[in-house]
Amino acid sequence: MATELTDDLTMPVPGELARAARRRRRVQTFDEPTGAGRVGRYALLGIVTFLVLFPIYTTVIAALKPGSEVLENPLLPTTVTFDVLVEAWNEGRLGRYLFNSFVVAFIVTVAQVITSVLAAYAFAILEFPGKRIVFLLFVATLLVPAEATLVVNLDTVDGLGWLNTYQGLAVPFLATAFGIFLLRQVFLTLPRDLRDAAAIDGVGHLGFLRHVAVPLVRPTIGALALFSFLGTWNQYLWPNLVINEADMNTVQSGLRLLSRSSLSEPNLVMAGTVIAAVPIFAALFVFQRQLVRGLTAGAVKG
Amino acid sequence: MLPSSLVRRRSVLRLAALAVVGASVAAACSSGESALEIDSGEATPTVAPGDSAGATTDVTPDATSPEETALASTTTVAPLAEFPDCPTGTLDSATGPIEITFWHGMNDVLEDSLIELTDAYNAGQDKVRVTLQNQTGYDAAIDKYIQSSPESRPDIVQLPEYPLQTFAQSDTMIPVGACIEDSGFDTSPFLDRALEAYTFQGVQWAMPFNVSNPVLYYLRPKFEEAGLDPDDSPITLEEMRSASQQIVDSGAATFGWVLDSGTNSGGGWFLEQWFARAGVPYADNDNGRSAPATEVLFDSPTGVELMTFLQDLINDGLAVSVGDNASGQDTFLKLIDPAADGAMTIGSNASLAGVLGAIDGGLAPGLTGADVGVGPMPGPSPEPGVNLGGASLWIVDGKGDEKAAAAWDYITYLITAEAQSQWASQTGYVPVRSDALEIEPLLTTYAEDPRFRVAYDQMVGDVESETSLAPVLGPQREVRVVTANATAAIFNGADVASTLADAAAQANALIASYNQRN
Amino acid sequence: MAADRRRRSGLGDLPLALAMLTPSAVILGVFVLYPLGRAVWLGQQRCDNFGNNCVSQGFGQYVDLFRSNEFQNALGVTVRFALITVPAGVVLGVGLAVLADKYLRGIGVFRGIFSSTVATSVAVASLMWLFLLQPSVGALANIGWFNSLFPSVKSPGWLQDPDTALWAVSASSVWANLGFTFILVTAGLQSIPRDLHEAAAVDGAGGIRRFWSITVPMLGPTLLFVVIVSSTRAFQAYGEIDLLTGGGPQPTNPTTTIPYFIYGQNSPIRNDTGLQAGAAVLLFLLLLVLSGLQLAGIGRRVHYGD
Fold this sequence. Notes:
A: MetI-like fold; C: mainly alpha; MetI-like fold; 14 helices
């Protein structure tokens, strides 16, 4: 049974497996409840759905209500207006914050992919003395939490004059051992013959990397890219420390600002929250596969 | 995240983990001491060139006697000589506009008004160009300033009153007193209390710009319903109690007085105000004005009496606390809470415009802005009297003579009677000079809406002694956190005397640590 | 082959490897390893308010800091926070994944909904919960019948009551991480071969029996990963505290976690660079111990297939 698993993909994509499983056994009763079991399960699913969505629901309702109605009836959209959203976008500067977050996340994502691909290839395919130790050193950085480095990093960034700049927000994160580890793992699964064949044809490492290796591991790169983007987009503490000019805030530190200055207008804060959340919800909806792949990359096979 | 391939080294890891666990368990018993009591040894920092006597704990040998220092409205020459110069004449010979940056903490309405003033300044002359940089708040501005390297500092920074000692001792500022001296600026129309608030050891460090102080906010309909005169708000603490009693008894509101234990309000700032009102020292060395404070005195009988009074109010159901009021708006929100509301609360007069705007915007159905009443801050004595809050303008040193002169020029603009009249009228801040009241638009504003005047009226008055000024402490913000915690504990029913004593001990540890390191 | 021989000779691809490793090495060196080293050194110094004039005090300062009241408080809060959020997160994640692991029409929609919180950042999720729980203008506080059932949601408010504040913050955190855990566990479930269940069912094992004997053991690696990531996150909790309670209702501050103790707005060490660095290093060591214990303790029992 375990061998059956490893015969398939090295990095099983859950959706595919599930579909395959469904194709093979549709008649298993424990996989497909009937009758009372079916109704019960739907009911349970419904209740849980309500509980999971409740905070999102009340937030959206509040974001669409005018100020005078916020305190009445938080459960029903008594009046729907988009004015508050517009106000959050303009006066709350959320448009600008979204832009800042996007720029920084984009820079970091591209950089992390590039640096990780290069380093992972070196560890996986190249041979050089001390490789093991150096790799362990790289991986060791995974153990260091951001909080431990912030104090000094802030100093460094300030010394470079990079407070309130995109560089200041992005540069400390241009490389990541997680990406290196992930890509090394998948580079290691490339068959030896591929590399040997390329060597015979006189293709150097860089050419091999560019024309063969990278295209082959594209799904994993996609997962890493999504992971990097999301991770950078969601950063909270670092932007708060680095940014003090209102216009340079990212979405997360901007939300903090909004919540402090406008609690007497809770609908405005909620509108800001909705605006901040929508892009990611949309992006993750589109990139579901990559997301699952990225998240499960460390987990299932360990 | 640890890749599971490391599990293969699990025996080594396990041993290491056990060793570390063992070591930490051994050390794990809490020492029962505060982190701030960790000794910083003989930490006499290297004295920077030009360092003044103010950097050590010795009393400045040049300081004049305490009474003289507090009451003199001009600076004395001797202490100033030890601090950086302010060559105000440099501006005359400068070519081209000098660019200066101003870090401020004004938001919303306040920021709009500041932008208007600054645009007018920039347009009205071509020697100086000011760029505003909103730091989103005073604490943020302080943090950023402290973190920043000399190159990234601004030319002017707006700072509140509580970091006075820190920045006075920082060797990074030019005292505005030097500029006043150099240019022969006339400070006579200025409010005594406003100027004195920013003097430390005889030196005028900053120019007050936006002055606020605490006032009593109340809802007039609830006063009327309780049979109280909405034009005559309570002024002593006893009157606050009886008014609250009437309000609760009549059912006009669930509670009379809405309290909070925030650091810059009910748990810190207001306490300092009440001590000053009662003429009782809050800290030693004349409230930290004649020499850096070394200990706090708020656990005195006055403090115990005051906090017991507030605790009794809560126990008797006449008052309620909304906690640490992190947003600064919880107290106001409690006034209009549909289920369990209050009738009165103390808040900064700077919030007046915002409160009126929110209520007129419909946040509380049935109420309009006109229903909001404003009265002088109640306190231990029947004479109104407050110390200021708000913020002031500081000139940063090390930027060159031209920038210093430019900064001074901009500052003098912001404190002209015309600018102050406009500023006070638009924001509700108290003008720093009395002649601003005679000019439009403030003249009309005060005439049309006397509520905006309340804060000003309770601030005119001479400074009798140090104890009628707010205390100056090194780690003032941290001490306020300590008093805020103590206030919250007391509001929850803790024993007043022991809580205050503990708080005083903690505050003293903070001050000792600060004095050791700075 | 010639290429193999070259590779085995020792130097191998060193020049190229150096070139490919340098970008990552520089970034990781400058922004991870150097700061850690410097923080370790800073942690035994005391500096003035501006971070200058630092004076060494000896490494005993670390012990003093670790044993101080404030740090012990923060440690207690952090551990409590982890003890609430990690098991709750695992149980709910597994529960939801098992619930949705059936062939039903529209199950994809439900799976999508259960995953949706992965799209929320700390700030977004915390603000949503702030709005729910705020005692004056919050949603729950303004629903009449809910108020009557739970008067404490309004007075003093679940975030303002020292006894419930940490639970409220934990609820927000668990909710925010639910999507993440759900996705992982679902993936793990789907990698369990169906014939295992089939065979067990044929042998007469009921649903619950099969869950404990097959599902849970086979989920081992996934659960270990979830536990490690969740507990690391719990020890790094900052944003939710910053937005929801600002460190916790005074005076006991029951929501001040270690990161909030270091970087929070009202922290007593915020102007003390030396102690800040020291506390940050202590956090690093704690996380090290935590991960080590988890791998050694749980990792041992995890079954990795063949």
